Structure formats: C-alpha cells, structure tokens
Amino acid sequence: DSNLIWARAPGPVHHDMDITNDGEIFVLTRVPQMMPWVSEEKPIVNDAITQIDTNGEVVRVVSILECIRNAGEDALLAELKANVPRDNGDVLHTNSIEVLDGSIVDRAPAFQKGRILLSVRHIDAIMVVDLEREEVVWWHKGAYKNQHDAGILDNGNMMVFDNNQHGKKSAIREFDVATGEEKWKYMGTAEKPFFAFQS
Residues 127-141: what's their mean pLDDT? Predict the structure, then answer.
C-alpha cells in the first residue's frame, strides 16, 4: 500500500545489498578518507562491507581496501595503485555483493559459507572476502571489463555482466570458479550487438 514499514541507511549506501536467510543484512557503503598507503596526495573513496541487524544497528564495517591490503597479493595491489590517478578518488567502484551460502565449497574451498562475493569494477576483478580475517581470500580477472552483478548460479558456476564500455560491447559470461574456464556467453550478433551504455 506504499506505506514505508522499515528503513535504514547506515552511511552512504550504494549499488547493492544482500540479506541472508537468518536476517543478516549486508550493504555496500563508502566514505572518502585519506589512506596514505594508497595515495598521499588526495582522499580515496573507501568502499566497505557494512553489516546491520534487523533493528538497523550497525554490526560491523569492513574496509574493502584494507581487505585487499591484508591479502598481500602484489598483482592485486598493483591494479589498485594503477587506479589512483582517478580524479574522484573512486579506485574500486564496488558494485555487487553476495553472501556465500557454502554450496560450492567442495569445488572452490575459498567460497565458504558467510564469506562475501564482490564485483570491483575499476580493477576488473571479482573477489571473495573473509570478514573475520578482513582479507581477500580469492580473486579472479577474466575476459570481462567494467563488470557488474557477479553471482553464483544453481549449477555452481559464476555469472557476470561484462560491461566492456571501452570496447563498445557488452556480454553475459558464465565460468567455472574452480578452473576459470568460460562455459557460456551471450554477446548478441553481428547485426544486433549486445551493448549497454553505463553512465
């Protein structure tokens, strides 16, 4: 009946959220702040995973930048620091979040129940975060660029929207998380190419 029955905005929420069967709520938030290990000259947009309860109280806030740093992955850190020149300080632009249910842990051990699957557009990466360790425990870069909406399918594969704006083409891609092998894709046809412009 268009009557608001519940609302909570724990800071600057953006892009996506997920709710577990137990009622745990996870949202993407962000705040600009100085992070000298990323940039000594200007503020960086610090994306975070924020958990709130059904009363709207913040349970925890975990910095995605710090999770990347804690992983100690040189290649991932290099991708991050290559993004520092962005004028608005938005070096990650995290755009999707999914709480993993552990259904594929037998074939992908990093995908344990309760860990968080993220799509990080500006470094063209998908990653899994362990909230207890505050650390990226798995990450993947594939044929996709500027991707959105990474998620696990019922068959255990991952699907992602490849919004490769710079190539003026888009795609929907499905791949095996254990091997990285692409299993299916949709890119339209030569006569009718699939392209979704992102603003």
Answer: 97
Please check whether residue 138 is in contact with residue 150, taking contact to mean a CB–CB distance below 8 angstroms. no
DSSP 75-144: HHHHHHHHTTT-TT--S--EEEEEE--STTTTT-TT--TT-EEEEEGGGTEEEEEETTTTEEEEEE--S-
What are 63's strand-pairing partners?
A: 48
Q: pTM above 0.85?
A: yes
Helical axes 64-71 vs 74-82, angle rounded to 10°: 140
Tell me the mean pLDDT in the region 139-157: 95
Q: For the stretch 37-67, what's the b/e string if a residue is b when 16 or more beta carbons lie within 10 angstroms of its beta carbon?
A: ebbeeeebbbbbbbbbeeeeeeeeebbbbbb
Residue 161: strand pairing partners: 148, 172
